[in-house]
Structures are given as C-alpha cells and as structure tokens.
C-alpha cells in the first residue's frame, strides 16, 4: 500500500456500524468531511460531529444507502460479515474508497487503511502497520507526538521566510540552504517550543550566518 493524503473537503463519508470502532472512525472523519453513521444503536458513544442515522439495513439494502449519500469513502464496521461484504461491494460499484474495519491484511484495489496520526498545525505524520498491529501504531504515535511539538509553527515560519527570500536576490540554491539551516537549527526549535526567544529573530540570525558562510 502506498501512503497518500486525501482531501475530503465537501465529500461525504458513510460509516456502517455504531460500535466502538465505528465511533472512532466517525470522530476521525467528522473533523474533515460530512460523516454519516448508519447503525441500529449508538449506545453512549462519542461520534464527534457525525450525523447519526438509526437503521439496520439488510445486505441487499446497503447499496441503496450508498447511493443515497454518494460517499467518497465507505467504512464497513458492523459485526455482521454479510453487511460488511455488501458495504464493500456497494462502495466498489459506486467508485468509492472503502475501509473494512473488521479485517486486517485483506486489501483489494480501492481499499484504504486509516493511519494513526499526529498533527501540529499544518504538519501531519501518519503511522500505519497495514492494519496488522493497531497497538504498535498507537505506541509509535505517542512517541512521535513529543518530537513534533513546534512543527506547525516551524512550517508557518519557514513559509514566510521562503516568500521573503524568493523576493530577494539570493539564488535558488542559497534560498534552499538558508531554509534548511533554519529547520535544522536547535535554537529556532527551542524558541518555537518555549517562547524564551523570538523565533523569527533566531531564524534571521541563522540566515545571516549562512550568507556569511557563502561569502
């Protein structure tokens, strides 16, 4: 499987199943897209901002539900193999992606795995074991979280610096080296994470140092 980042803006995700797995998937997708959960019961679970539709479609009724919502992604997360099979088949027929949450290791064309993610601003890191070990994905996510602190602010800062350097008379190679130096400089990271110093001033110092080194 090849990791890709998919924009679900203005798209719909349909989740079949209101159990713990369905709720977790719904919370994740509801942050990015219209998410509809179809289930006969929801218990006292957190589904985020997802729309909850109380229904228990039989396998031969599942295609009608998929057609009704025209989703970009279908999540099959019920405890009924026949319903999950029908959800997968309906998604394929509709040209939608499918995430089958009740099995791991079985991957057909159009299948997606929902990775464990760590986010800081515009920076996202996704971790997946191909569905083989969710526990390992969670463990690695927890380890990455600490390392990612400040990455969102670094992305915003270097985006501004790139625009400013592009308007200068520095060559593309010089601009690239300057930004790389900022990204790798511990003092800039410390300023972003602690606020003890001005990150932009630290970055400007690093860039001046690279310019002196080039001269």
UniProtKB/TrEMBL annotation:
Record region (Disordered): 195-215
A molecular function (GO) term: precorrin-2 dehydrogenase activity
Domain Siroheme synthase central: 120-146
EC supergroup of this enzyme: oxidoreductase
Origin: domain of life: Archaea
Entry keyword NAD: yes
Keywords: NAD, Oxidoreductase, Porphyrin biosynthesis
InterPro entries given in the database record: Met8-like (IPR028161), NAD(P)-bd_dom_sf (IPR036291), Sirohaem_synthase_central (IPR028281), Sirohaem_synthase_N (IPR006367)
Protein's name according to its UniProt entry: precorrin-2 dehydrogenase
Keyword NAD: yes
Pfam families for this protein: NAD_binding_7 (PF13241), Sirohm_synth_M (PF14824)
Reactions listed under catalytic activity: precorrin-2 + NAD(+) = sirohydrochlorin + NADH + 2 H(+)
Biased composition (Basic and acidic residues): 202-215
Entry's Gene Ontology BP terms: siroheme biosynthetic process
Pathway(s) the chain acts in: Porphyrin-containing compound metabolism; siroheme biosynthesis; sirohydrochlorin from precorrin-2: step 1/1
EC code(s) of this entry: 1.3.1.76
